[in-house]
Each structure stands twice: as structure tokens, then as C-alpha cells.
What does this fold into?
Amino acid sequence: MPTSETQKLNKAHDSPFTKSLMLYQIPEAEYSGSALTEGACLFRTPETIRLDRAVEWDCYEDDGLGPVRIALFRTGEGVWFSLQHHEMSPRRDLTTLFVEPTDIAGHVDSALVALGCTSADLAWLPPSVLLTPVRLIRQDDNGVQFAIGDFPCRADAEAVIARLAAGGHKQAYFTETIRDGGPQLQFPDDYRSPPTTTPS
It folds into this structure.
């Protein structure tokens, strides 16, 4: 069980995205915000959620689907979310992501970034929720900017930044919101495989 002390799960990253990558696990009893709403399902289980430190899950009995494991988090950006996994669900390969209802798409994207996930980890989004597409930009030492690519969400762009940084690229990276068009996610009807990306 989590202690009353907030646990920082990610180490500070030396990148322009440090604040969005920080993640704190908060004991559920200490949360006093608005009720979280179902924002997405992830192709993850408690065993496959990998952070810098072990996630401490609260376990509860739940009517209908058996025991449920819950973990509550706050990102460095101040976004709250929880992960819930029903142990007896017919879809035990999924974990449900609950977010604040004020900006479901933005909060799902922030949670994906904080968890080190991408759109390929999404099994389901509510039909009314569209993640905001972004353009990834690289700026060299002379201030020259290059578009690297367009992505259906910030989490996908940040995964590319992490790969480039791990390969020794020391450039500055940032994202710009694509206002008109941009790639979108298309989910299969059976929700048994990751979404595909439709180009802009």
C-alpha cells in the first residue's frame, strides 16, 4: 500500500520535456479533486506498466468483475489520472485510464507521455475524443528549424524525441499543434489491436 508520502516515479530527465515526464504516485485517500472519468483503455496490465520504480497498487473488491487494482498519479504538469485493472474482466489484457473530465483528450495524451506510452498502447478511446495531432520540430545549434514529422498525438512525438536523444542527438526538439487536419487514429471495430494512423 502506498504511504501517505507522495512517490516520485520518474527520475528527472535532461530534456526540454522534463516537466511533462515527471510522474508522482499519490495515495488514493489523499485525492480530493473531481471524479475522474473513463478516458481510454490501454493494452497494458499491472505487470507490463514499466516506470523507474514499482507502481504500488491499491486492491479493492469490485462487484461483477472481481478484484480491481488502482493506482493514482499526478504528472509534473498537474494532470491527475488513475489506472484501474479488473482482475476477472474478460479483457484482462487491458487497463483502464481514468482522467479529469475537463479535457479528456489532452489528459489522456499527458498520461500517455508520463507513462512512456504511445498511441500504439491504446485499445480504446471514447468516440467523441480526438487526440490533438502535433508536428515535431528540431532546432539545430544555429536556430534553423526542421519539421521531423506529423504525429496523431504528443505522446508519439515525445517517443521519437526520446529515441533521438538516446542515440546522442543533442538538438532542441518541440512540438506544434496542427490546427487543421493532421494524422488521426482509427480504431478497429473489435478493439483487439492498436489503432492505425490515417494521414492528414
User: Anything to note?
Assistant: Residues 154-166 form the longest helix (13 residues). The first strand starts at residue 7 and ends at 8.
